[in-house]
């Protein structure tokens, strides 16, 4: 089967997400995958130029070495705001080109550009699947455009033959937005249970960053958004002294808040207790998780972007028997509930208090075991089976 995936983010530089895992797994099963993406990171990591040229990246694999995905990157104007306007023009043109040259059996789209993908799919009588992994209009940098993005999402939903969501909170959201309940299905995030093995050693990481055997390591990985809550956690760490002065915060990743967190580290003398590694390759992530004792997701609970999502890293933490402390994020609470290896704090400032309470009650190992037991039903091969089943169903219905 030939599948064309259209998205409005960087497929190559962004950390592996749902689309990477599923694209690579089904490519290993003999399906041909082409991705149209967007050089969203051009301002910080791209070449300095007025207009980028169309590029093709063949044999792309971020997780499975034998997987092969072709990524097509249309050219854009590298001018703030105009980059998004030019994206719509260039992606529309590229979708038509791929329909003519690649002749996809199914068009799959994530994000706000699903409108373009859905419109082209209907024009050429190609089945269209709209996959929701977040609420895309909330990610548009210019907030005054959010209402327009919301309208575009509604229109795109009407064009979909099938709507997939990554969790049940998002399913509720898209049905309320107008998606057909009968044609809306949850295909959740997953985890590679072999790669994220609780028996992996984190000793090399602890040694590299000067973490002693009796240190308690609190871990976060991912993009450092301003709303990630990590600045608040870092400030709270500076207040913790005495018997918990051996509590350390290990942050893997970069992003908008990186420099501010670094400033907190220097201002409050947290050189030995706050470890910022920057970006780390995905294959090394299991060792970093293994080096930790407790993992956190301290995002602002009132941040709209976070309300409907369940990050894949939560499954990866749990797979390695690490207890997780998160704020009261609706998507996570709906997905996992209570007594499944996740503890909740009402705000970022209280995350470390919840961590300390867990340590004092000797519950860390118990909660970690609960999490591992739960995610054993979320192996990526099982998720890929469900996804491939939907692809086959949609293709058969179109004949």
Structural summary, described in words:
- InterPro entries: Glyco_trans_1 (IPR001296), Glyco_trans_4-like_N (IPR028098).
- Residues 22-194 form the Glycosyltransferase subfamily 4-like N-terminal domain.
- Residues 205-363 form the Glycosyl transferase family domain.
- With 399 residues, the chain is an alpha/beta fold.
- The chain folds into 2 domains: 2-190 and 379-398, Rossmann fold (3-Layer(aba) Sandwich); 203-375, Glycogen Phosphorylase B (Rossmann fold, 3-Layer(aba) Sandwich), CATH 3.40.50.2000.
- It has 16 helices and 14 strands.
- The strands form 2 sheets. The protein has an 8-stranded mixed beta sheet, with helices on both faces.
- It is globular, with a radius of gyration of 21 Å.
- The relative contact order is 0.12.
Per-chain topology:
Layout: E1 2-6, H1 18-28, E2 32-36, H2 42-45, E3 55-60, E4 69-73, H3 82-101, E5 106-109, H4 114-123, E6 128-132, H5 146-159, E7 162-165, H6 168-177, E8 184-186, H7 203-208, E9 216-221, H8 230-239, E10 247-252, H9 258-267, E11 274-278, H10 285-290, E12 294-297, H11 304-307, H12 312-319, E13 324-327, H13 330-336, E14 342-345, H14 351-360, H15 364-375, H16 380-398
Parallel strand pairs: 1-2, 1-5, 2-4, 5-6, 6-7, 7-8, 9-10, 9-12, 10-11, 12-13, 13-14
Antiparallel strand pairs: 3-4
- The secondary-structure element order is EHEHEEHEHEHEHEHEHEHEHEHHEHEHHH
Alpha-carbon Rg, integer: 21 Å
Largest sheet: 8 strands, mixed
Portion of residues within helices: 40-55%
Mean pLDDT value = 94
């Amino acid at each position: 089967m030939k599948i064309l995936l259209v998205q409005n983010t960087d497929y190559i530089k962004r950390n592996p997400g749902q689309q990477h895992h599923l694209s690579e797994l089904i490519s290993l099963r003999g399906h041909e995958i082409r991705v149209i993406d967007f050089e969203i990171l051009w301002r910080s990591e791209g070449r300095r130029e007025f207009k980028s040229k169309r590029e093709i990246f063949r044999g792309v694999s971020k997780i499975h070495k034998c997987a092969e995905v072709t990524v097509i990157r249309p050219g854009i104007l590298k001018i703030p705001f105009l980059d998004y306007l030019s994206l719509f023009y260039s992606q529309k043109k590229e979708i038509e080109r791929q329909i003519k040259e690649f002749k996809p059996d199914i068009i799959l789209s994530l994000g706000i550009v699903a409108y373009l993908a859905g419109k082209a799919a209907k024009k050429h009588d190609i089945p269209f699947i709209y996959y929701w992994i977040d609420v895309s209009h909330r990610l548009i940098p210019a907030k005054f455009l959010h209402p327009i993005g919301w309208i575009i999402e509604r229109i795109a939903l009407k064009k979909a033959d099938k709507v997939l969501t990554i969790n049940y909170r998002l399913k509720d959201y898209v049905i309320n937005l107008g998606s057909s309940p009968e044609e809306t299905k949850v295909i959740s995030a997953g985890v590679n249970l072999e790669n994220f093995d609780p028996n992996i050693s984190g000793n090399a990481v602890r040694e590299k960053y000067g973490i002693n055997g009796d240190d308690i390591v609190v871990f976060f990985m991912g993009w450092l958004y301003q709303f990630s809550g990590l600045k608040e956690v870092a400030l709270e760490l500076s207040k913790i002294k005495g018997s918990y002065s051996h509590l350390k915060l290990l942050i893997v990743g970069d992003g908008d808040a990186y420099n501010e967190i670094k400033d907190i580290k220097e201002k409050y003398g947290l050189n030995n207790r706050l470890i910022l590694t920057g970006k780390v390759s995905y294959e090394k992530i299991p060792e970093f998780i293994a080096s930790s004792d407790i993992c956190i997701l301290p995002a602002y609970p009132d941040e709209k972007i976070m309300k409907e999502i369940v990050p894949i890293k939560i499954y990866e933490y749990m797979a390695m028997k690490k207890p997780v402390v998160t704020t009261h994020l609706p998507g996570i609470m709906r997905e996992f509930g209570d007594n499944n290896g996740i503890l909740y704090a009402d705000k970022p400032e209280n995350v470390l208090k919840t961590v300390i309470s867990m340590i004092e009650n000797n519950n860390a190992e118990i909660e970690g075991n609960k999490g591992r037991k739960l995610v054993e039903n979320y192996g990526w091969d099982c998720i890929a089976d469900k996804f491939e089943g939907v692809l086959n169903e949609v293709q058969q219905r179109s004949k």
